[in-house]
Design a protein that fits this description.
By secondary structure, the chain is mainly alpha-helical. It contains six helices and two strands; from the N terminus they run αββααααα. The chain has one domain.
Length: 141
């Protein structure tokens, strides 16, 4: 249990100390300075409820989870891939997509692609910056 506590502490420290999101070209983008990939989320109204830390986007109201790790978070929460969830959501998201957010299939595909890339970038960054604990085997991503 102590090993996992160390890993969690290291991840939290990394996230809090970063204060910025990694841009795909290797530059650092300050939190609050949106990445161009954020445009679709802003235009479609996703950021009314969701922030996207990795893209430097704060939500208008903090009522929904940050989407930085949504690519895997949806699997953990709903047992569905992000693709399946966005094409057939449940709960509040079903209501939001039906009444507030009118996403085309192309919008959904773009959002899925961006969120998958964000997850892959941050996962790779964590793998580089947090060394494995002696004796632990961390599977490659």
């Amino acid at each position: 249990m102590r090993r996992w506590g160390s890993i969690v502490t290291a991840v939290v420290a990394l996230v809090l100390s970063a204060g910025a999101a990694a841009h795909p070209r290797g530059a650092v983008r300050a939190l609050g300075t949106p990445d161009p990939r954020a445009t679709i989320f802003v235009q479609r109204g996703c950021t009314d409820c969701h922030g996207i830390w990795a893209l430097g986007v704060k939500p208008k109201s903090d009522v929904a989870p940050d989407l930085t790790f949504a690519y895997v978070d949806v699997v953990n929460r709903y047992g569905l891939s992000l693709d399946a969830f966005l094409f057939n959501p449940s709960g509040v998201m079903r209501l939001m997509l039906a009444s507030h957010l009118n996403l085309s299939a192309a919008d959904r595909d773009s959002i899925i692609h961006i969120l998958k890339d964000i997850y892959a970038q941050h996962r790779a960054q964590l793998n580089r910056e947090i060394p494995p604990i002696a004796g632990d085997s961390i599977p490659p991503n």
